[in-house]
Every structure is written in C-alpha cells, then in structure tokens.
Design goal:
The protein is an all-alpha fold and about 550 residues long. The chain folds into two domains: about 260 residues, Up-down Bundle (Growth Hormone, Chain: A); about 230 residues, MFS general substrate transporter like domains (Growth Hormone, Chain: A), CATH 1.20.1250.20. It has 20 helices and two strands. Helix 8 packs across helix 9, helix 12 packs antiparallel against helix 18 and helix 13 packs antiparallel against helix 14. It is globular and about 70 Å long.
Amino acid sequence: MTAGISYGGTSGPGLFDRERTVARANFNRWLVPPAALAIHLCIGMAYGFSVFWLPLSQSVGVGKSIACPADMSYIGMMVATSCDWKVADLGWMYTLFFVVLGSSAAVWGGWLERAGPRKAGFVAALCWGGGLIIGALGIVTHQLWLLWVGPGIIGGVGLGLGYISPVSTLIKWFPDRRGMATGMAIMGFGGGAMIGSPLANILMNSFKTPEGAGVWQTFVVLGLGYFIYMTAGAFGYRVPPAGWRPSGWKAPVSQSAMITSGHVHLNDAHKTPQFWLIWAVLTLNVSAGIGVIGMASPMLQELFGGSLIGKPELGFAALDATQKTAIAGIAAGFAGLLSLFNIAGRFFWASLSDKIGRKMTYFAFFTLGIVLYALAPSFAHMGSKALFVASVCVILSMYGGGFATVPAYLADIFGTQFVGAIHGRLLTAWSTAGIIGPTVVNYIREFNKSAGVPADKLYDATMYILVGFLVAGFVCNLLIRPVNPKWLMKDTDVIKLQSAASIPSGPNGQYEFGLGGLDWRVALAWAAVGIPLAWGVWKTLESAVKIFG
C-alpha cells in the first residue's frame, strides 16, 4: 500500500512507519547488520573531527593563525570575522557531540521504539548531514556559534538517534547471537574516524586554494555523502514480526539466571538497582578508556621521546621543533592503531559475551584492565614500545567492547521489548564519562607538570587512579543480580504493546526468512560497508607502522 493513499476510507502505512518495515517472507536477516553499519560508519566520524581543528584555527590567516585582540569579549570572538578561532574553542564541538549524543538518546529512545528504526535512522541522517552543512555555513561566514549549533548540537542529536537506531532491531533478529549482532553494528562507530579522517584530508587537499584550506567544501561533501549513505542504511532496516524466532532455534532450557524470560517496561527500568549498577559499570569503564584515548598521542611522545625517531638518548624536552614534529606524526599513527583496536574489540568482546555471558565479559574487562593500566607505566620506564603499545591497544579493545556488549547485557536483564529505549537512557553514562575521564587525566597531568615531574613520569599517577576506577567498576558488576520478578510485565500487556506498535505476529511457520546464507543481496550490502572499512584499516596500518620505524 502506497504511503499517503487512502483505500476504503483508511490510509495505509506511511513510508517511514514501523508497520512498513516489518519483514516479508524470505527476508535474510543478515541484511540488517550492514544497514546499521552504514549509519554507524558515518556518525563515527565524530571521533575524527580533530583533523579539522588546525585548518579551522587558521581560517582567516590561511596558514597562520591571527589572534583576536586581548580585550575582545568571548561573545565578540564568536562572531568576529577578522581574527581566528582558538583550537580549545573549536573543541567544544567534540564535547557537544557526546554530551548531546547521550542526552538525545535518553530523551528520544522511547519515541524510537514506537516510531521504528527507519524513521529514527532517517532523522539521524537529516541531523548529522544537515549539521555539517550548517557548519559549512558557519565557516564561510566565520561564525563560531554556527559550528557549535550545527555539527555540535544538531549533529549530536543525529549521533544519538543513529547510535541507538539498530540496537533493539538487531537483538530481536539475532536472539541466538545478541552480542555478536550489536557488536557488528556498534563497531562501525569506532571505525567511522578511520574512514572519515583520511577522506577529509584528501578532500581538504583537493579543495585547498591560496584563499582557504578547503574545509567548508569538505563539510558540504561529507554532509551530503553521509546523508545519502545513512538514508540508504535507514531504508535497509527491517523488523521481525512479533514472536519471531530463527527457524529451528529455541531458547536454551538451562539458560543463565542472568537472562530474563520476561520484559521490564521502560518506565520501570530506571527504578531498579540493576539499571544504575550497569550505568555505573559503563561510566567507570568508559571514563578510564576515554581518558587514555584523550592522552594517547601526547603520552606516547612524552614517555618515549627521541626513541621514536632512533634517538633514545634524547628525552622529550631535549627534542627540537623538527624532531617534535616528526614524533607527532608517529603519534598520529598510534592514535589510528588505537582506533583499529577500538573497532576490533567491539566485535570480538561482544561475540565472546555470547559464549561466556555479559557479566563474565565485564569481569574480564575490569580484571585485565586493572593489570594493564597498572603495568603500562612500568612498560614505558623499561623503554619497551612493543609492550606499552600492546597494553594500550588491549585497553582500547575493552573500551570498545564495553560499548558493544552493554546492549546485550541490558537485553539479558530487562528483556527485549524496550531495550533500545533503555539503552538510550543508559548512554547518559557516556556523557558523564566524557566529562570525568578527560577532566581527571588533564588536570592530573597539568598538576604533575607544574610540580616539575619529568615527562616520562607524567602519567604514572594518572594510570593508577584509572586503576581505581576499574576496581570500583568490578565491584558494581559483582553486585548485579537478576531483576525482581515484580518488575516484569504481564504477557497480555506485552501483546497489547506490540499490537499498538503495528507489529503483526503469527506462527513461525509462515515466516521462513532470517535463515542467513550468502546471496547476492547480502554480498552487495556487505561490500557497500566492507570496502570503505577495509580502506580505512589499510590507511590506519599504513600510518601505524611508523611507530616501530
């Protein structure tokens, strides 16, 4: 039935309505993960926005930053067209990304469950792509506030909706592999910067002229490209009929007590201690990991200094400007390598959680993390680049793994009916961690530096404090138990909700789809996301090899 056309006095489902996305017979469930990846690979560019800071800070001076007068007010600086922006002020876009991501996911998570993933994915495409277009206007007119409003706030809403749009759908399509399914999609968010950052560099170099660095043109191309790619992903979403299960699959009879057989209503989830314990677990894990991400580049440079360029006798302070530029390039490769492990960890740990359970997976994060965070300073003092880099890479794999495993953890504890919306509310933990982690790390570093601590010991205390975060996370995870049965919804209430959401149900025998298998449609869908991702991995490895000479 065509959207907007009335038959017999009634109007059929609209193009974006949830009912329109219910899968037809013979649909292959392996088409859904690449649709989710298409969205996550685009919004994941939020991690790579630092590629724009330097050229944007030289928009007026073109190659040389022109400072604003010392007596100019902050509001005056936001609208001034005669002087350049500071990198620190541009960095507010990055802060807004993750604060708004968590907030918008929490506010509109319930709407997403009612509206369906297609509508949410399309709105995410409008916000993320449109936010970049508004940002381009801000660059052309040199209005900093437009960059904060466009990519920062409007784009941040796109990040939140795009991030949670596939979660509930994937968990329902893959009840037999919840962790793997969400891991496949959410790994795209970690991989977006691997594709977007080198692509942005290529575009800026193509558009660069003596009058400008080509940033606004790059924003326009990326905004339009991301909108098209994300829209294609949104239209690739399908939801299974209510009660559908993969052919021949039955829930294990001897399933863990940690996996509920019922559903907790969205309005009740936050009233349970389990929600807040998982919130604390994610906050502490992410605070530690995001702290390492934020200091990865300067940490490598200051800890290893001249050894990165074959001059181990020179500490960081003894390097000249040319040498510091050289090791900065090597540190950029290190940041790229961490992105690769961030991605790989999302798929590896989430898939492993299907075998050993979510609670045990988080125990692994905290136990292994405590050991590696505590040993990392010793590896640096030993002068072992290999051990230090390996430990930080594993740490980042667990940072990504924590994000990818938590949706399945929530589904185990609260059921699948509202898991997308509950996950949206839980992402306020990310917003909180985005403030705690970098703040703790940056202030401790500055305190140590002002106290005269040598560069190669600046981060020792920081890593030990992050160990404390992980110990607290271990305790919180230990306290998680199955929800009290009083919070579980009645079966009749679940059926009413599914009917109200226009999700038809029926005997499984009528729906012989979702069996898997590689047909040409699946191959084409995975190629559409796999080829760009493979290119991003190649560019990352190309830069990372410089660490070892």
